[in-house]
Amino acid sequence: MSRLEEIDTKNIREGGGLLPTSAFSLIEVKGPEAMRFLQAQTTNDVSLLEDGQMQKSAVLDRKAKLVGNFNLYRIDQEHFKIVCDSALQKPILEHLEKFCFADKVEFVSIEKQKLGYLYGLHSRLLLSSKQSQEPSLFEADCGRIAFAGNDAEYFKFTLTGEEGFLLHMNLLDSEDEPEENEAYHKEIAEREEAINVARIEAGIGKFGVDFDNDNLIFETGLDQSSVSYTKGCFQGQEVLARVKAQGAPTRALAGLRIDGKIGELKDKSIIKDGQVVGNITSIANSKQASGIVALASMKRDYRAPGKTFAAKLDGNDVSITISDLPFVPIASPKEFASRMLEQGMSLFTAEPLTLEAKDSKSIFFLRIALLYNPLSLDAYEALGVVLNKKGELDEAIGIMEEMARLNPDSVMAHANLSAFYVEKGWIEKAEEEKAISMSLRMKEIMIESKQKEEAEKKKQMDQGETKKRLEMFKQVLAIDSDDLLANFGTGSCLVDLGHFEDSLAYLNKAIEVKVDYTNAYLYLGKAHLGLNDIKQASSALVKGIEVAAKRGDGEPLKAMQIMLNQLEATAI
Question: What is the pTM of this model?
Answer without folding.
Answer: 0.83
